[in-house]
Amino acid sequence: MTQRNTSKMKDLLVSERPYEKCERLGEKNLSDAELLAVLLRTGTRGENVLDICRRILTAGGGNLSGLHSFTREKFQKIRGVGRVKSIQLLCLMELARRLAKETAEKGLDFSSPASVARYYMEDMRHLRQEHMKLLMLNTKSALIGEKDVYKGTVNASLANPREIFVEALRMEAVSVILLHNHPSGDPAPSGADIAATERIRQAGELIGIELLDHIIIGNNCYISFREEGLLYTKG
């Protein structure tokens, strides 16, 4: 039997073409590769866009979430992905991040660790280095400022609370929340995380700024020091 040439989208059966399948069955019935194919639109000489999209997903570990950490250069290492497609993919990942954050913002409540983690999840879970973020709150527990206070080895940033509280004092904050990510995806705090957080809490207590929580972001999961009973406040 002669194998059918499917190097071009027009060579696919009409029922296999992503546009037509979406019209017939709806977008929810398209695979991840088919959804990407609709957005990227064109293939290359000798390979249709659907096959390229399957290889893009394979490069990301078989799912869309694996692509969030890709740079333009990394996308362009995939055969068939050049300058234009790499930019399209980066913009798609950024759009997904913004949509997720906008949705989470509607229920944002700084007294709820789950709400805070959900809001910052897409910003932090795909980072390849540890980052620490400081959230500064007023007397009504409303956010008055946020600042990235460290990038790199988080234990080093935790060892010295000076930068944290200099910024909080400048903003006249009455309480703060710390967030940092674990690039491994596992949010479980280390012994050093716990000890250093306690040093920060004590320093804040001395100057009258309460450390409300320290939230560690993993891959679609988090741990709250307050929820886990790891924050030894007077209350």
Automatic annotation (TrEMBL):
Organism name: Faecalicatena fissicatena
Classification via Gene3D superfamilies: Cytidine Deaminase, domain 2 (3.40.140.10)
One matching Pfam family: UPF0758_N
The name this protein goes by in its record: DNA repair protein RadC
Keyword entries, A-Z: Hydrolase, Metal-binding, Metalloprotease, Protease, Zinc
Domain of life: Bacteria
Keyword Protease: yes
Stretches assigned to the MPN domain: 109-231
Origin organism lineage: Bacteria, Bacillati, Bacillota, Clostridia, Lachnospirales
Family: Belongs to the UPF0758 family.
UniProt keyword Cell inner membrane, yes or no: no
